[in-house]
């Protein structure tokens, strides 16, 4: 639902269904910004955020949300 509010012509949106998939996408094409679901399956958003802050990733802006 949140992705529908992002103006598509202005941004290229990459969506992942899990934290591991998000890291794979980020490794292939460094995103800016990143919107995380804190309660993602397999690997939560906090863990993904920690990994994205490692020097091997070049991600400038991150934020987190949860549907809870």
Structure notes:
This protein has 68 residues and is α+β, with helices and mostly antiparallel strands. The protein has one domain (3-65). The chain contains two helices and two strands; from the N terminus they run αβαβ. The protein has helices spanning 19-28, 45-52, and strands at 34-37, 62-65. The protein has a two-stranded parallel ribbon with strand order 1-2. Strand 1 (34-37), helix 2 (45-52) and strand 2 form a beta-alpha-beta unit. The two termini are 14 Å apart. The relative contact order is 0.22. The mean pLDDT is 77.
Show unreliable segments: none
Helix content: 25-40%
> What structural category characterises the helix and strand content?
alpha+beta
Measured between the Cα atoms of the first and last residue, the distance is: 14 Å
Strand content: 5-15%
Question: What is the succession of H and E elements?
Answer: HEHE
Q: What is the tally of beta strands?
A: 2
Counting H and I runs of at least 4 residues, what is the number of helices?
Answer: 2
The dominant shape is globular
Number of domains: 1
Mean pLDDT: 77
Round the Cα radius of gyration to an integer and report it.
Answer: 12 Å
For the biggest β-sheet, the strand order reads 1-2
- Sketch the major β-sheet: 2 strands, parallel
